[in-house]
Amino acid sequence: MKRIITLTAVLVFCITAAASAAETLKEMFTQGTVKGSIKMLDYTRDFDTANTRNDIALGGTLYYHTASLFGISLGTAFSTTNDLGSDDDDTVYSVLGADENGNHKSVTREQEYFVQGDWFKTTVKYGAQEINTPYMNTDDVRMMPRTYKGLTVVNNSLNNITLAAYYITDSMGWNDENFVSISEAVAKEPGRATDIDEDKDLIILNAAYKLPTQIVKGDIQAWYYTIDDIYNISYLKASLNTDLGSANVYFVPCLLYQKSQGDELNGELDAGQAGFKLGVKIAGFDVQGAYSRSGDDGMITPWGHDQIIGQQVMISGTRGDEDALGLKVGYDFTKIGLTGLSSYVWYAYYDVDETDTVKDTEETDINIQYAFSGSLDGLGLRFRYAAIDVHDGDDYTDTRMYLTYNFSFTGI
């Protein structure tokens, strides 16, 4: 299968390249799009008893995507994270890499390299690429986004319906220098270390329907993920909202089931999560309540998540037999003339069947951020603080500071 996909992609590229050389190949490159982000990050996790984790880094990602010629375009990207004098007495957080001695390490890598075709409202992309699905995505909460190798096909030829298929062979995490196979990434998941000596690939199927009404707006999505002899995921999600006077009310129910299959190379697994988000936006406020209930086992999420409650540190569904309840209140200060300033406070309680290692946990998050405008458009400041209270355990705080600049332009 891999050889067939690779051969097909090479043939398409070669045929197109020959045709392009006789037409407007120069414009294909000079009219391309450049975009990127520059970040300076300081992440610290301070425990009551365990060693402090801290990374201070400067880096970002630079993307280049050519213009389309006969439906064909090319893309590449590079990411880097560079140590700014982090104390090696502190444990690496995961904004930076770690060397063989556990010390902070700078990393530079090629993030993307792909060929893309756009025909008949269908996008086909082959190569190393960032993708964003509920349970395989960039998970862009560190310096370098997660990225993947494989083939993706997204079709929008039917009214209000999107159909997609993904065949993914490899992945790179937040601070990896090289791709690893999908099965190797699963095997490295904390708490489920397994010696999987077979390469297994991931197939993702998706259908999404955008509601055609104006009274209730939103969409309904169905996702299926499968890795032979490891596990599969079935995921349903609806994102619905309606206007009631000056208020916008939204409701997001989710249902997920994850089950080991075949030879169960990563062990037996029977996990699930059901719940919802319910909120209202009015007069600059966004008030949201959320509830989730997890099955017998904790979920395996090595490539990002779309959990019902996903706070700065804690995530619902990663521990078995868990009830999670959250309340989030946000405010956009634009409503009182402070354009670009916003904040939120978020509290959640995670109730589990307690053991010696698994405890009830509370988390309170505070977030303040400011997006500049005018001549400083693209520049942003953000401060995040989380206090985590572990019942009869080691409490800790998590502090993250961001200075970011995002930019894009077309044509060279």
Describe this structure in words.
The protein is mostly beta strands and 412 residues long. It is 8% helix and 54% strand. It contains three helices and 21 strands. It has helices at residues 2-21, 25-30, 182-187, and strands at residues 33-47, 53-65, 72-83, 97-98, 104-105, 107-119, 122-129, 147-158, 161-172, 180-181, 202-210, 217-227, 231-244, 247-260, 270-282, 285-294, 322-332, 341-352, 361-371, 379-390, 396-410. The strands form two sheets. It has an 18-stranded antiparallel barrel. Strand 15 and strand 16 form a beta hairpin.
Which stretches of 5+ consecutive residues score pLDDT under 50? 1-22
Fraction in helix: under 10%
Helix and strand element order: HHEEEEEEEEEEHEEEEEEEEEEE
How many β-strand stretches?
Answer: 21
Evaluate the radius of gyration.
22 Å
The gross shape turns out to be globular
Count of DSSP-assigned helices:
3
Assembly category: single chain
SS strand fraction: over 45%
Arithmetic mean pLDDT: 93
Structural class: mainly beta
Ends distance: 38 Å
Please outline the major beta sheet: 18 strands, antiparallel, barrel
Quickly list its features:
about 400 residues; mainly beta; 21 strands; globular
Outline of the structure:
This protein is mainly beta. 8% of the residues lie in helices and 54% in strands. The strands form two sheets. The protein has an 18-stranded antiparallel β-barrel. The chain has a two-stranded antiparallel sheet with strand order 4-5.
List the helices and strands and how they pair.
Elements: H1 2-21, H2 25-30, E1 33-47, E2 53-65, E3 72-83, E4 97-98, E5 104-105, E6 107-119, E7 122-129, E8 147-158, E9 161-172, E10 180-181, H3 182-187, E11 202-210, E12 217-227, E13 231-244, E14 247-260, E15 270-282, E16 285-294, E17 322-332, E18 341-352, E19 361-371, E20 379-390, E21 396-410
